[in-house]
């Protein structure tokens, strides 16, 4: 009997403890529901219109102003090589000489035939005018002269093709033949050398939709490289594609006049600093006021000491400031510090009144 009484007392005490805990939990939940009864301390700023100096730094790859693969237009054996990798060559400089003995002989023969055909044509033209040569004889001499001239032009071109030349001025970056190498022309021409023109270089990179709409062809930019960290190169936007790629970015080229002392090379990485003052009198807020992800940014607006969350659409960034395209109005109060602990409709106390 005593055991039953003891058990009853324990059960009653347990029920009482559980009831007290449940009631306390409900009270605590009621006190903290909506965050209104708890006060958080925050720093705020008033939303204003500002002139943003929209600066953007992107990394791109330096490319040569002109990059040419020199191919053979003739067949034969290489008998002389006049350049090597790293050499600077001028336009129309001979890089490689292919055996020209047979083509020289063919040129001499074609030139002789053409000279004879021209004299025959001139003679028959005079006889035709004197009515002593028939129409067919005159026409035959005329056609013969034209065909001989065509053969001479072909033979001359074939002879000239034995001297493989650089079409541009630039540096030799690759050479694929040596003395004794057999080369061939079309349809599968032999690769002879690669020549790059570095008198002017271009940095290739991609701009986002927003940045592509702000920047203009001709805008000045500053370029720096890891190879020459203390040198700032002046450049200009050469082109911005009117068609975006699959990532919705727009291929852009920056042109730079190369310097002899600090020669930029194709393939180097470069940092391009864009600067534009087009964003004048725009709504801007400190970037630190943003909460949430980059794709879905939000801010806390303070109204009558209550912080309310609001989605915003952001535009160009400039240093610590960011343009707000939609979501806040001039004169509204936004939280710039202490917002990480806030929820929607949280009671706040402003520190920097």
Description:
This protein has 353 residues and is of the alpha+beta class. The protein has four domains: 1-33; 38-53 and 280-350, conserved putative lor/sdh protein from methanococcus maripaludis s2 fold (Beta Barrel); 56-64 and 197-276, Elongation Factor Tu (Ef-tu), domain 3, CATH 2.40.30; 70-193, Beta Barrel (OB fold (Dihydrolipoamide Acetyltransferase, E2P)). It has helices at 2-32, 101-129, 135-160, 209-214; strands at residues 39-46, 48-50, 54-71, 76-81, 88-89, 94-98, 163-165, 170-175, 182-183, 191-207, 220-225, 233-240, 250-257, 269-276, 282-286, 291-292, 297-303, 306-311, 313-318, 321-326, 333-337, 346-350. It has a six-stranded antiparallel barrel with strand order 3-10-13-12-11-14. Strands 1-21-17-18-22 form a five-stranded mixed barrel. A hairpin with a 7-residue loop joins strand 11 and strand 12. The protein is elongated and about 145 Å long.
Provide the descriptors you would attach to this structure in a database record.
353 residues, alpha+beta, conserved putative lor/sdh protein from methanococcus maripaludis s2 fold, Elongation Factor Tu (Ef-tu), domain 3, 4 domains, six-stranded antiparallel β-barrel, 22 strands, 26% helix
């Amino acid at each position: 009997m005593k055991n039953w009484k003891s058990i009853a007392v324990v059960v009653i005490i347990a029920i009482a403890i559980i009831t007290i805990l449940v009631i306390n939990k409900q009270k605590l939940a009621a006190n903290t529901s909506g965050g209104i009864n708890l006060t958080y301390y925050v720093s705020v700023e008033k939303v204003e219109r500002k002139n943003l100096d929209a600066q953007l730094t992107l990394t791109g790859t330096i490319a040569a102003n002109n990059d040419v693969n020199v191919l053979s237009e003739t067949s034969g054996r290489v008998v002389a090589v006049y350049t090597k990798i790293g050499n600077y060559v001028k336009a129309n400089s001979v890089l490689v000489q292919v055996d020209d003995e047979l083509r020289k002989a063919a040129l001499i023969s074609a030139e002789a035939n053409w000279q004879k055909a021209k004299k025959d044509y001139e003679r028959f033209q005079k006889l035709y005018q004197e009515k002593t040569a028939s129409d067919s004889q005159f026409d035959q001499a005329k056609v013969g002269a034209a065909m001989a001239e065509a053969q001479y032009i072909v033979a001359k071109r074939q002879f000239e093709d034995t001297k493989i030349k650089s079409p541009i001025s630039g540096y030799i970056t690759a050479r694929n033949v040596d003395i004794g190498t057999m080369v061939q022309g079309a349809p599968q021409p032999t690769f002879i050398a690669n020549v790059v023109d570095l008198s002017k270089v271009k940095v290739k990179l991609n701009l986002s939709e927003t940045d592509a709409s702000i920047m203009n062809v001709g805008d000045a930019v500053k370029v720096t490289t890891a190879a020459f960290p203390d040198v700032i190169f002046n450049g200009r936007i050469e082109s911005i594609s009117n068609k975006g790629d699959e990532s919705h970015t727009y291929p852009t080229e920056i042109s730079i006049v190369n310097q002899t002392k600090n020669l930029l090379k194709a393939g180097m990485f470069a940092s391009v600093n864009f600067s534009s003052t087009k964003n004048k009198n725009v709504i801007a807020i400190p970037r630190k006021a943003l909460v949430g992800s980059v794709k879905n940014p939000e801010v806390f607006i303070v109204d009558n000491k209550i912080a309310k969350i609001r989605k915003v659409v952001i535009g160009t960034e400039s240093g610590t400031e960011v343009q707000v395209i939609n979501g806040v109005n001039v004169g509204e109060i936004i939280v710039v510090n202490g917002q990480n602990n806030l929820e929607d409709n949280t009671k706040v106390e402003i520190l920097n009144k």
